[in-house]
Amino acid sequence: MNKKKQQMILIAMGAVLVVLIIAIVLLTSHAAETPTNNASVGTSSQTKKDPNLDKVALPQLEAQVASNESEVEIKTTDGDITVKLFNQYAPLAVENFLTHARQNYYNNTVFHRVIADFMIQGGDPKGNGSGGHSIWYDKNDSIDSGHGFKDEISSSLYNIRGALTMANAGPNTNGSQFFINQNAKNQTKQLDANNYPKKIADAYKNGGNPSLDGNYTVFGQVTSGMATVDKIATANVKNSGEGSTPVKPVKIISMKILKEAK
């Protein structure tokens, strides 16, 4: 075998060796990046849980109406909904809602936006989502300077199924509109369990909208009438626009204050 052929064989063998080394490196790298599945559903190893989260009060999970809570019955054309309100954790939102209810502000308004597996929204006297003001509008600039009152976000309140929440147009723009979380699908895969009290993470198995947490003020919870909420959410809607306006208007007939917090 002449020298030239030997060189060619050595070069070929070297090339094969290089290819094998590259293949081994790639396979090793790929194996290291493969995610493990031994973590709990919805739990991120990047977030360390605050141990105090499991110590906070969670009034939404209590069936009884406490002495520091209020209670309102919402009569609609599709049935009645009873909610309890959390004066302690969202005092502005609760005062706003109770005052509007007392003054018949919501009477004959419609649920202008209903989305199945999401929520039902109402509280707009214009009936199209563009109207409504807080009780402080044009009366108390220190609370509402014309754009709505401030958000009240609490580690005790979440957008679980049945939560009553203020609608807004961005941070600190609360007026009169509100929504009730209707989604009944398990949401545990949609949240980082390390950011939630364990009992709330468990409650999200029954539905809700965890993506809204921290951006909207939760101020109440449905205690009876979720069947009515579900009925409203699944109403036939118009094809125009977002496709969330009921073909047959669903109205709030009246609101009755059953109890006010002490």
SSE inventory with pairings:
Layout: H1 3-33, E1 70-76, E2 79-85, H2 91-102, E3 113-115, E4 119-122, E5 163-166, E6 178-181, H3 198-203, E7 218-224, H4 226-233, E8 252-259
Antiparallel strand pairs: 1-2, 1-8, 2-7, 3-4, 4-6, 5-6, 5-7
Written overview of the protein:
- With 262 residues, the protein is an alpha+beta fold.
- The protein has a single domain (68-259), classed as Cyclophilin.
- The chain is 22% helix and 17% strand.
- The protein is built from four helices and eight strands; from the N terminus they run αββαββββαβαβ.
- The chain has an eight-stranded antiparallel sheet.
- A hairpin with a 3-residue loop joins strand 3 and strand 4.
Termini separation comes to 104 Å
**CATH superfamily, called what?**
Cyclophilin-like
What shape does the CA trace take?
elongated
Please tally the helical runs, counting DSSP H or I stretches of 4 or more residues.
4
- Average pLDDT, rounded to a whole number, is 88
Q: Order of strands across the widest beta sheet?
A: 3-4-6-5-7-2-1-8
Extract low-pLDDT stretches: 23-45
Q: Give the oligomeric state.
A: single chain
Quickly count the domains.
1
Integer-rounded radius of gyration: 27 Å
Question: Percent of residues in beta strands?
Answer: 15-25%
**Major sheet characteristics:** 8 strands, antiparallel
- Indicate the CATH topology: Cyclophilin
Any idea what the CATH architecture is? Beta Barrel
Query: What is the highest CATH level, the class?
Result: Mainly Beta
Query: What percent of the residues sit in helical stretches (DSSP H or I)?
Result: 10-25%
Helix/strand-derived category reads alpha+beta
Count of distinct strands: 8
* Strand/helix succession: HEEHEEEEHEHE
